[in-house]
Design a protein that fits this description.
Helicase, Ruva Protein, domain 3, 118 residues, 2 domains, two-stranded parallel ribbon, 4 helices, mainly alpha, elongated, single chain
Length: 118
């Protein structure tokens, strides 16, 4: 499939796209400066598309991205906060579960949601 993102209503002549995204953004503040409105619109639309793809592929629970690889201290701390927020488990129980599941955040959440947390 071919996706065409075009804010000027011009479609390729030799290769018709399957999907055309054509936002109405108006003229640039500075003529010829595509970094401004057009570039920002492109970035916003691509962010929406990729975020929705993450949601549809199961990488999001509620409003949190849970399919992360906590490969350093900062990401492990984030993983602990995410698991705690989604399960109401205390820090000790969260750490034990994350270690048990080799820091797989989704599996840890599923496990803690399926047991009674005291």
């Amino acid at each position: 499939a071919l996706l065409c993102f075009n804010s000027t209503l011009k479609t390729p002549q030799n290769n018709k796209p399957n999907i055309v995204i054509n936002p109405k953004i108006g003229p640039e503040l500075l003529t010829g400066s595509t970094r401004l409105k057009s570039g920002t619109a492109t970035k916003l639309i691509l962010n929406i598309i990729t975020t929705m793809a993450m949601v549809q592929s199961g990488k999001v629970i509620e409003n949190l991205m849970v399919d992360l690889d906590p490969s350093n201290t900062k990401l492990r701390e984030r993983a602990v906060r995410i698991v705690q927020q989604l399960t109401n488990a205390d820090k000790e129980q969260t750490l034990k579960t994350l270690q048990k599941y080799k820091w797989n955040v989704k599996e840890s959440i599923n496990y803690l949601r399926n047991i009674k947390i005291t």
